[in-house]
Amino acid sequence: MIDVEKRALLRDGESVHLAKKPFDVLVYLIERPGELVTREELLREFWPGGHTYDEAVYSCISAIRKALCDLGNEPRFIETRWREGYRFIANPRPSHTNDKAAWDTTQGDEPASPSLLTATSQQRSTRSVFGLALFLMLGFLIAGALWQKSSGDRTGSASTSPATASVEKQISSVGVLPVQGADSDRWLRQGLAEELLHAVSSIEGMRVVKVLSEAPLDEEQLRRLDVDALLESTLLPESSAGSLYLRLLDSDDSSIVWSYHAEHSLDQLAESRTEIVASLANHLTASLRGFSLSTPATAEAWPPYLRARYQWNLRTPESIRNAIELYQQVIELDPTYANAYAGLAEAYAGAPLWAGSNSKEAYAQERNFAQRAIELEPNLARAHAALGFYYAHHDYDWEQAQYYFARALELDPNSVTAHQWKADAYCYRLLIEECAHHIAIAKSLDPLSPFIEVLQGVPLRFGKQFLAADQHLRGVLARYPNSAAARFQLAVVLDAQGRFDEALEQYDRIYAIYGPKLIGSAMAWCYSQLGRHEDARDMISTVRQLEREDFVSPTIMAGTALVYEGAEDALHWLGKARDEKDHLFSAIAVIHHFYYLYEHPTFQLFAEELGIPRERLLAYNERRPDFL
């Protein structure tokens, strides 16, 4: 029953909590039984003023359903029409209870469960915006590609509803939504969102969830985020500077309790961001970590920096090379900007795997740039994570790697990259459960990332759960059919199961992206197992020609040798890989083509150098794949 006058929701005589905004929306829907009420209509009615998005409606409807126990696949009260809106589908009829007009949703003498009554046409209270608070930052907010430089004064204002000026609900987690702005480029929106997320992480004790998917979120996705609040931001080129609108939505009722609007010129950005973060942390009675929130010294450096962040996140050979070039442009403009050096360290860490670069040269660059970043900003988590990666994959020094990963996560517990790289190091040392644990943490912090979804299949593959990995990766490709990383992992999983025709089909679809340098050896193996020896020898010839002219990973060359030359030639190449600090050498224990070498004393010696005791290696070798 709903008593509009008393603003009360009762279920079986017991009061059920429903916040103001969801209560008003529920009444609105009940007054229109059977009618389709669009999301746009609800936004106009309950979130006037613009700059609010579908996530606010989804969260509000979710709160109503929870209160009504209407969470199943067959709703009894509120029906969702995908991409359209909502209908109240119960059948309310006029009734009278205690001389008060009501709407009864029961059918005849059969009570609905829960029973729902609402007073007729009572005037709804004003739909004021209020709720809870969280902080924000302006970080790298207005890039030069969107706005021209302006010498005008900075103006900014933050507000909360008077009724909720103090924090009533403890906020310990927030989901950062994509930056909106129809006129802005995707690289700008995503770059700003990354920096916004970084700034939110500077609040002590705050769990920050990355929600940077460009597609609207549905109610199920919002529930999976499991956060106390959602942070939305809008970027509009309304003046010569630019307007930023920031709002924090309470995830329970979608009420907006803290908002910020400012016009900024580029040269005033650094001061504004620090001011905003400090203000919001104070509002939450929280403290800030000793954590880098620096900005470039010159406004011209921000657009290439944001472009570089966007390119790095694409994880393709071309995008990694683009990121390196853009970071170098930033350093030319500002040689003291620590985040650009940390970005270069990350890009060089990924260059051998994603772009086929020479590992020894790339890792030397990675170390130098990470150390330079730490010299400039000692508390820069990204740089510490990059050094952890370096020690794990170049020096094979697990103790040092652990130190730097731990330091990175101490400085920024929300670092998805640090958890991902730590997971890799665990997997390569055959500590599969620990690997899966850190991938799961990364997934919780970046739940809608296609790349992290792909990585969830890695511990399955390395744990020889090939059927489970196959199913998982096909699910990823159903959602993200253009994911080259998912297709590569699926090809490897099919190869491991002996499904060579299917593996080659997947390799063929990504050949233009990765080329023979990265996947030629695996394709040659599949050809040979199918008896297509001419194709196999042609591919091997192509890979060897590339190795003579340019650079091909010695570990990949070892895989090529296994096709026809045999174990001794393969072990020769693995020895070269060790000496040259090849990026793939650290992963030899989980590359299924090398399972045949496990009992060879030389291979066992290599494994021990990687921190894998012989007993662990042999125990892993005895683990039975799930498809057998």
Secondary-structure map:
Blueprint: E1 2-3, E2 8-11, E3 14-15, H1 20-30, E4 37-38, H2 39-46, H3 54-68, E5 78-81, E6 85-88, E7 93-97, E8 100-104, E9 117-118, E10 155-159, E11 173-180, H4 186-200, E12 207-210, H5 219-225, E13 229-236, E14 243-250, E15 256-263, H6 269-283, H7 302-314, H8 317-333, H9 338-355, H10 359-376, H11 381-393, H12 398-411, H13 416-428, H14 432-445, H15 450-462, H16 466-479, H17 484-496, H18 500-529, H19 533-549, H20 554-564, H21 567-579, H22 601-609, H23 614-622
Parallel strand pairs: 11-12, 11-13
Antiparallel strand pairs: 1-2, 2-3, 4-6, 5-6, 7-8, 8-9, 10-15, 13-14, 14-15
Helix content: 40-55%
Distance between the termini: 57 Å
Main sheet? Answer: 6 strands, mixed
Tell me what portion of residues adopts beta-strand conformation. 5-15%
| Shape designation | globular
Contiguous runs where pLDDT drops below 50 for at least 5 residues: 94-155, 159-167
Estimate the mean pLDDT confidence.
79
Rg for CA atoms: 28 Å
Key terms for this structure?
11% strand, six-stranded mixed β-sheet, 23 helices, 628 residues, three-stranded antiparallel β-sheet, alpha+beta
Report on the architecture of this protein.
The strands form 4 sheets. Strands 10-15-14-13-11-12 form a 6-stranded mixed β-sheet. Strands 1-2-3 form a 3-stranded antiparallel β-sheet, with no helix packed on it. It is 51% helix and 11% strand. With 628 residues, it is an alpha+beta fold. It is globular. It has 23 helices and 15 strands.
